[in-house]
Write a structure and sequence with these properties.
The protein has 248 residues and is α/β, with parallel strands linked by helices. It has helices at 16-29, 46-53, 79-84, 95-100, 105-117, 130-134, 138-149, 177-194, 216-220, 237-244, and strands spanning 5-9, 36-40, 58-62, 89-92, 121-126, 160-163, 204-208, 227-230. It has one domain: Aldolase class I (TIM Barrel, Alpha-Beta Barrel). Strand 6, helix 8 (177-194) and strand 7 form a beta-alpha-beta unit. The longest helix is centred in the last third of the chain and has 18 residues, at 177-194. It binds 2-phosphoglycolic acid (PGA). 2-phosphoglycolic acid (PGA) is lined by residues 9, 164, 169-170, 208-211, 229-233.
Length: 248
């Protein structure tokens, strides 16, 4: 069985004190959660949020990590720096990083390997643009990301994939339950083929893109969908709690 994982991606929102307030309010609302609950916060919020989640089920995630262990990489943060602060998860290759910060399949792969080496769980984002979907290129785009982003990984039970159709991110336009289920099923099937014998069957695949308190039940009821990566709705305590408690 694959344990569902609901992760909030705060993006560049919440100062440290705002973030601490948010998780303090969230704690009692998610205390009976059966899924894994993660908040991926801006790096500078990590110490305050770590303190605020103490004694709860909420786990800590970051939004990016550099691939080098250390060195002359001004502005970057290493996997060990995250690890020492109790960070357990890190989002890698989010479409915003690919679109605005020059992230490539190659750097996604390097970051993923570095995160794994440090004992962090990478949440690797893949997905197609609207143009690609409408052009019938979804599978081709995914095949390419699958081939390049995950090279060298030996145990896929240690990673999470977030399937995020770019056209659904922050747009309020969610993939239908069937679309999301079908595409995630395709990703799983393809990965089992390309990375045979590497525990792909135990890898969790989330859906991401305008998932909210209303549509989460339908999406989470789909057999292929193992969780959600939540942007906008993770900034509202009650909404995020409702998603975490999708099974109640
Ligand atoms: P959204 O963002 O939920 O605001 O669409 C999802 C994401 O970018 O991870």
């Amino acid at each position: 069985m694959r344990k569902p994982i609901i992760a909030g991606n705060w993006k560049m929102n919440n100062t440290a004190s705002e973030g601490a307030e948010l998780v303090k309010a969230l704690k009692p609302l998610v205390k009976d959660a059966k899924c894994e609950v993660v908040v991926c916060v801006p790096a500078i919020d990590i110490p305050a949020v770590k303190k605020a989640i103490h004694g709860s089920k909420i786990r800590l995630g970051a939004q990016n990590v550099h691939f080098a262990e250390k060195g002359a990489y001004t502005g970057e943060i290493s996997a060990n720096m995250l690890k020492e602060y109790g960070v357990q998860y890190v989002i890698i290759g989010h479409s915003e990083r690919r679109a605005y910060f020059g992230e490539t399949d190659e750097t996604v792969n390097k970051r993923t390997l570095a995160a794994l080496a440090a004992g962090l769980t990478p949440i690797v984002c893949i997905g197609e643009s609207l143009e690609e979907r409408e052009g019938g290129l979804t599978q081709k785009v995914l095949d390419n990301q699958i081939a390049l982003d995950f090279q060298g990984i030996e145990d896929f039970s240690k990673i999470v994939i977030a399937y995020e159709p770019i056209w659904a991110i922050g747009t309020g336009r969610t993939a239908t339950d069937e679309q999301a289920n079908e595409t995630i099923g395709y990703i799983r099937k393809r990965m089992k083929k390309v990375y045979a014998g590497k525990n792909v069957g135990r890898m969790r695949i989330q859906y991401g893109g305008s998932m909210n308190a209303k549509n989460c039940k339908g999406l989470m009821a789909q057999p292929e969908i193992d969780g959600g990566l939540i942007g906008g709705a993770s900034l509202k305590t009650a909404d995020f709690a409702a998603i975490v408690n999708f099974d109640k």
